[in-house]
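Below is the data:
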Amino acid sequence: MKIASYGSWVSPISAEDLVGNSNGIAHSYGQIDQGYAYWGQAIAQEAGRVSIFRRRLLGGGVEQVTPKRYVRSGINEYGGGAWTVSGGSVIYSDWPSGDLHIVKDGVDSLWLSGENSSLRYGCLSFYPEQNLLLGVCEDHRGTGEARNTIFAAHTESGQLVTLVQGADFYAYPVLSSQGMLAWMEWNHPNMPWDETRIMAAPFGAPQASYQVSSQTAQAAVYPAWTPSGSLIYLSDLSGYWNFYRCELTSKAPAVTALHNEPYDFADPMWTPDPAPYSILDDDRIGCSWLDAGISKLGVLKCDNNQGENASLVAIETAANSIRIFGHGVQTTAMFGYADRASELVVLDWHRDAPALTVIESDSVQSAQSSQFTNEHISIAQPLVWDGANQETYAWYYPPINPDFQAPAGELPPVQVWSHGGPTSYSSPKFRLDIQYWTSRGIGILDVNYSGSTGFGKQYRERLHGNWGIADVQDCVDAAKALVNAGLADPAKISIRGGSAGGYTTLRALTTSTLFSAGISIYGVGDLEAMTTDTHKFESRYLDGLIAPYPAQRQVYLERSPIYHLDKLNCPLLLLQGADDLVVPPQQAYAIAEAAQTLGLPVTMKVFEGEGHGFRKAESIIETARLCLDFLSKTYGFVLPTD
């Protein structure tokens, strides 16, 4: 074993290997149809193009269903529900045209025009018996905000009909076998995890709609029908996203809470991909839930509509990150593990303990290399502490490499990672981009700061009015907890984040002296600009996270890092996509210019052709190399030659 300083260890994981890792089945979802499992997969070598693949359940090779198309939806800018399959037909949204295509019997045909992305389609579901497609349309024609509606389209006639309109946002239009339509809707300034409604109406008379979820403020999400016509959905009324059942016998729907568990059975709906549970039959729901940030798998058994007496039967798996897709006794699920790549699996629910078949493994080149062994894998260690915001959570990945050890008495440099959202969360599943650092002798502290999902509504709402305060304090407290435990060099603590996590990073660097380096990846630097120069979906997001604008404009100025760069006292690396519509590149340019004017050490790289999230192989490689070079120069460790 060689003696070498932390940060200078030779790793079997190269920047190029991260490209293979980004060819992620984990970036999409799966569906089953006529004996095949279908899934979406990003291909970084083709500029991040997403294609649909399939494999026969009884065995056989992988087929690419859309080899010449980029499958992606543009609704809400983040997209979601860009494709669906049923009855042997695959229907998908093409990017960037927005056109809807249909693939049947191996023939790919243009079906509905997106009018050069002026019309964006997503949240798609297909009902082959009626030759009917349901979805959400976002209309960018004309001036002002885009107009969102629920549409129905007939595959034979090609006729598109607007069913529901009037709300600011829609998601999850679903049709029952009894001819009832249900959907989810919400209005500004709410986000879909703040306050939403579940609505229902006869399909033939959508104007006769009524609200299914109660008038009490709640985030009611993910409606789905049972075979007998009961409506199932999730709501956070109890403080956690739990299941509810509604019997639509009249315009006074009877809603019953099926259970009351202190776990979230859903994530915040950033993208309207398929619902994260499976209606197995009238009395069983296949589901997963988050318990302190770790996913569990099980069945909710609700025999005889007893309500709140439903029993939750847990099923043991090796996975610590689970998301289910589709309905019926055969469903797909994405399983993430602590020590290996994620897998797309098929669950056969004919019994409560489902049989599991692996369909495809996420592409992790280095994990298959003879040089990369289990001894190289850093397993997430839970870190829990009572800080300024009460009990808070993080995952710590210590440096590990079987071929190296640090000199006696030396402590490792640690990066504090702040996830995006900010209502997202970090799971402890295997990620090659984390192993890239830990195998080089650099620890990663991934913080589920106040506002993160997986710990209940109260934890999520800690960030209301406190963005830029509670999240920053939690990241600072996490780093201090690690230092106090003797696990990190206090002089080599850096912070890194993307998008909302980039804002937390910039805010931490301008309010705290704890961090000695920072990396902001398409981070928010000017909160006020986010109210006037962003897309519809997030245009009122900051009303809840910060304060109503413009009435409390001063709060936006006080919490915008760009106005406090005089307090920045360490090197800063800015990485930005030139085509970013969520956090426009002007924000990064303004921060870089202001920092340079003050004579502060700042480095900036703008990636052409990239938006909010880097997809191209060359961007992924250069990002890893730039970040490593930045930290090596900041902390003075010598990088080994390749």
